[in-house]
Design goal:
GO terms for molecular function: ATP binding; ATP-dependent peptidase activity; serine-type endopeptidase activity. The chain has 180 residues and is an alpha/beta fold. The chain is built from five helices and nine strands, in the order E-E-E-E-H-E-E-E-H-E-H-H-E-H.
């Protein structure tokens, strides 16, 4: 169904949550970095990761993979004695793969508006590569980072939008922060 649509377009998704039927309008995104439109849900092998110390994430209120980067940063923040946020109010978005690459998400404009409303100072945005196939399918497409900067400017936000391609990019930026 999504293959005949273009990204940036919205599709209506019906789903069941806690035995209640619900609907949502979801923006199509590039799900494979090759221009294939989708909603960010795919079939994968069930993987179980055993960690020491044990890590538990209550993700019931989080839909989709877009919190991958922030989950990863939060987990990393708990492993050492350093608080990498250094007292700053930080938010962000992006999928994350096993190699630490940050991927494109849908609805970044809405996330920027919500983050600004919550007085976020720094927002990590995927600096995804736009392929020629993506440009052909959707000529006006820009990276999540470019879209985030444009939205922040349009709402006159003071928030700093930081481009990230990898988990390491985000961590490197956090290392430059001064204690608040």
């Amino acid at each position: 169904m999504c293959a005949v649509k273009k990204w940036g377009k919205k599709v209506e998704v019906s789903y069941k949550h806690q035995d209640k039927s619900e609907k949502a309008s979801v923006e199509l995104i590039d799900i494979d970095k090759k221009g294939t439109p989708g909603i960010g849900i795919s079939l994968v092998d069930d993987q179980k990761l055993v960690t020491d110390p044990k890590i538990t994430i209550d993700s019931e209120k989080i839909g989709g993979p877009s919190a991958g980067l922030m989950f990863t940063l939060e987990i990393y923040n708990h492993f050492g004695k350093t608080d990498w946020t250094k007292g700053h109010n930080i938010a962000g978005t992006g999928t994350i793969d096993v190699e630490g690459n940050v991927g494109r998400i849908g609805g970044i404009d809405q996330k920027i508006v919500a983050a600004d409303r919550d007085d976020v100072e720094i927002f990590f945005a995927p600096d995804d590569m736009i392929t020629p196939e993506m440009k052909k399918a959707q000529p006006g497409i820009v990276s999540n980072y470019e879209d985030a900067v444009k939205t922040a400017k349009a709402i006159d936000s003071k928030m700093k939008v930081v481009p990230v391609k990898t988990f390491q990019d985000a961590l490197d930026y956090l290392k430059t922060l001064k204690e608040k």
